[in-house]
Amino acid sequence: MKRLLFATVALFFSVISYAQIEGKWKTIDDETGKAKSIVEIYKKADGKYYGKVVQLLIKPEYATCISCKDDRKNKPILGLEIIRGLSKDDSEFDGGTITDPKNGKTYKCSITRSGDKLNVRGYIGFSLIGRTQTWTKAD
Fold first, then answer.
1. Coiled-coil segments, which residues (predicted)?
2. Whole-prediction pTM value?
3. Where residue 92 sits, what CATH number does that domain have?
4. How many domains are contained in the chain?
5. How many angstroms separate the CA atoms of 53 and 69, rounded?
6. Helix, strand, coil shares, percent, the chain, to 5
7. 68 exposed, middle or buried (CB, 10 Å; 0-12, 13-18, 19+)?
8. With contact defined as beta carbons under 8 Å apart, do 23 and 52 qualify?
9. What is the pLDDT of residues 53-72, one digit of tens each?
10. Considering Cα of 61, then 66, then 70, then 72, what sign does the dihedral take?
11. Tell me, what's the pLDDT at 62?
12. Distance linking the first and last C-alpha atoms of the chain
C-alpha cells in the first residue's frame, strides 16, 4: 500500500513539473542550427511568466537592441527581457509577447513543453501565421 501511495504522489508531482517552463533554456539559431543564447524563464509576483537572456553563446551582430521600439531600445541584449506576460492555460503558456533582439520586432507568443524541449511560437494576429523555435533545457 505504501508503494502505491508513493508511486501516485511521484506521478502527480512529475505531471505538475512536466508542464512548467521555469528554468534556463538554450535557444537555437534558425539559420545556422547552432545554440545562440540561454534564456531564463521565471514567474513574477503578478503570476505571469517572463524570460531574459542570461548568457550569449555566440557573439551577436549588435550588443544592444538597437531596433527595439519600446523601453528595451538600446538596452544590452545580455539581460534583455525578451518574453513578457505569459499566462498558464492548461499545458500551454500564452497571452504574452516575445521580442526578437535581432530585428527588434515583438510578436504574440505561446509556449508548450514536450519533455526537455520548449516549442516557442511567435506570431502576428493569430497563431497560424508565425514560426516555432524549439529550445532545449540548459544544464
1. none
2. 0.83
3. 2.40.128.520
4. 1
5. 18
6. 10, 45, 40
7. buried
8. no
9. 999 998 888 899 999 999 99
10. positive
11. 84
12. 36
pLDDT band at 139 (very low <50, low <70, confident <90, very high): confident
Cα gap 38→21, rounded to integer Å:
14
Do 106 and 65 touch, CB atoms closer than 8 A?
Answer: no
Q: Which domain holds residue 32?
A: 2-137
Q: Say whether pLDDT at 7 is over 70.
A: no
Can you read off the three cell numbers belonging to residue 103? 530585428
Q: Residues 6 or more apart from 92 whose CB is under 8 A from it?
A: 110, 111, 112
The count of other CB atoms within 10 Å of the CB of residue 120 is: 23
